[in-house]
Amino acid sequence: MGEAIGAVLAYAVGVGISPIPIIAVVLMLFSKRAKANGPLFLIGWVLGLTVLVTAAYLLAGALDVGSSSTANEGVSWLKLVLGVLLLLLAGRKWRNRPKAGEEPTMPTWMAGIDEFSPAKAFGIAVVLSSVNPKNLMLGVGAAASLAQLGVAAGQATVALAVFVVVGSSIVAMAVGYYLIGGARAQKGLGDLKAWMTLHNDAVMGVLFLVFAAVLISDGLGLRG
Predict the structure, then answer these.
(1) In the prediction, which pLDDT does 163 show?
(2) What's the whole-model pTM score?
(3) What's the gap between Cα 71 and its chain centre?
């Protein structure tokens, strides 16, 4: 069981530490529909992650990654490719980080978050958790690593659940803090949003670099 959880844990942490969704959920928690949009964003995030990592794991299982040497080698090559892509993204994010005194640029869709309907809050969370390139690569990496172990279905289910829980933890804590923290929560969440906004590119650059190393070392068989 420990080996199965260990195969996905690092990837889950990378998913959880994502400035853009954290900023998005905090903005929603300051909006007019905060009490509906915040929890629905969390539900959408959990659903998107669950679908992503489960589909990737089932596909890896269908390809017989755990026992077929050819499929296993293919997964190793996939990890190498994903690692190189993350390495390139790390360099791009680091180069694009705002200089001293420069205002960071956020996605244009964030400007309308205050007017989001509950359905739109749910939908954007599903997209951010399952379709954005970072989560897609980390989710596939986690599922592939788990499939390569060839563990029993029960252990795989627990490991995938741990991936979703850890990957959703910061978004969940932000929503929970808002619901129980009252006025004090608003200041704390505001400070978190400001820090994440300012350091988004730097944080993402470092995350991409770290997980590029993880994927490349896994692909080369250097870990474990």
Answers:
(1) 96
(2) 0.82
(3) 26
Distance, CA of 162 to chain centre = 13
Tell me which of 105 and 145 has the higher pLDDT: 145
127: tokens are 């997209």
3-state secondary structure the chain: CHHHHHHHHHHHHHHHCCHHHHHHHHHHHCCCCHHHHHHHHHHHHHHHHHHHHHHHHHHHHHCCCCCCHHHHHHHHHHHHHHHHHHHHHHHHHHHHCCCCCCCCCCCHHHHHHHHCCHHHHHHHHHHHHHCCHHHHHHHHHHHHHHHHHCCCHHHHHHHHHHHHHHHHHHHHHHHHHHHHHHHHHHHHHHHHHHHHHHHHHHHHHHHHHHHHHHHHHHHCCCCC
